[in-house]
Amino acid sequence: MTRQLFSITHNEEWADMRTTQKHDERIANMTFASVYPHYVSKIEKMGRSVGELHQVISWLTGYSETKLQTLMRNDATFCQFFAEATLNPNARLITGMICGYRIEEIETPLTQQVRYLDKLVDELARGRKMEKILRGSQ
pTM for the complete prediction? Predict the structure, then answer.
């Protein structure tokens, strides 16, 4: 994700690679439906499709299209969103920097999972090949 999208979750934390409890709580309480339009906008600006976005989300979470729509309709928070997900075992291969944080160093599991999703969306928007985004598995 771009810095401006999650700027509400970063203030003084930019200088420290560890997230704070306040930061983690804000992310946990954000609704997936409130962030989803930003994901769509970001990938479409770069010529990628919503279908590809859903493929990436499904790979990470195990969610079907129907389940994803239900979660959005019900305003599921990121806490609820990831609590119900079956995280792909290869998600641990998602590394690097996103929103000022090194993903593999994030200690709070939920915050790390949200950043996994952010990183995948970022890679999709940057034109990375789907095989690479999905860490060699489909």
Answer: 0.84
Beta bridge partners of 97: 102
Instruction: Bin 21: left if φ > 0, else alpha if -120 < ψ < 50, else beta.
Output: alpha
Domain 24-133 CATH superfamily: uncharacterized protein sp1917 domain (1.10.8.290)
What tens digit of pLDDT does each residue of 31-72 get?
999 999 999 999 999 999 999 999 999 999 999 999 999 999
Phi-psi label, residue 126: left if phi above 0, alpha if psi -120 to 50, beta otherwise:
alpha
Query: CB of 119 within 8 A of CB of 36?
Result: no
The H or E element containing residue 80 is helix 78-83
Query: What Rg value do the Cα atoms of the chain yield, rounded?
Result: 14
Identify each DSSP E strand in 1-115 by its residue range: 97-98, 101-102
